[in-house]
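Reviewer has doubts. Consider these tokens.
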Amino acid sequence: MPIISVIIPVLNAATHLRAALVSLPGQNTDVEAVLVDGGSRDDTLAIAAAHPSLRVISAPGSSIYEALNRGIAETSAPAIVFLNADDALLPRAIEAWRDALVRVPECGIARGRPTFVESDRNGTLVPMARLNSRVAGPLTAEVLLRGPCAINSLCIRRSVFDSIGLFDTKYRLAADREWMLRAFRAGVGIAEFDSPVYRYLSHIGSSTIDRTRRNYAPMRREHLDIAARYLSTASPCHPMLLRVLRRWHAAETGMLAWHQVRAFDVSGVASTLAHATRLDALWPAFLVGDSVRWLLRR
């Protein structure tokens, strides 16, 4: 049995899929690779067919997180990695994850370093320095909630999913962040190592990492829903996590409200501010404090 399953959710992914699949054979170890297709109408399945070791599962109409849950159910390896169709595994990433799991048998997650790139005008991939700096250190609650989520830099033991559950598919953009918060709150152990394992590609079609920010408002709303969910059940035994949650809730409230102001959505602004105040009347103080800290750093 291969030690790691790689699950690839796809939907009309022909533009980038080849690069993702090419990154699989160079991993220097066996993997169980499964592609879950949400009903592609382009050349996605033809590209997948060129890789005989890749198992294709048809799941028409599935969202990305429904596809990931289906992939978890359909695979058998004791550890799992997720590969987006527009990204790539870096050389020897699977080997690095596997070694970390063996080195720290009590951990539930092995975390390497993600890298973020985008294409310049010549088509050359260039690093995104700001995002890369945010994920260069350990996975703290601050990075988890307020940095790039980067769940694809994790290799997760199947037993963790058995323990805390699969992705909550009510969220279409932020279910990975909610799942990671759930794991963090449950105290799942993380084995960190400093090797780069995953390359995210930022482009116009990206759901979350694109400069056009087409899903900006829906993402803020999902974040606020998650914040409300966890603030209402936060344990006073975890004051650090509670504080980070309150700061995150305040920041997301401010970002959504400002977006609505710029869109002249008066009723939306009123609703956002009222909902935030009902949940945490001190949220403006957290927002001001964060703003002052940001200004001092600059």
Summary: The chain has two domains: 4-202, 216-297.
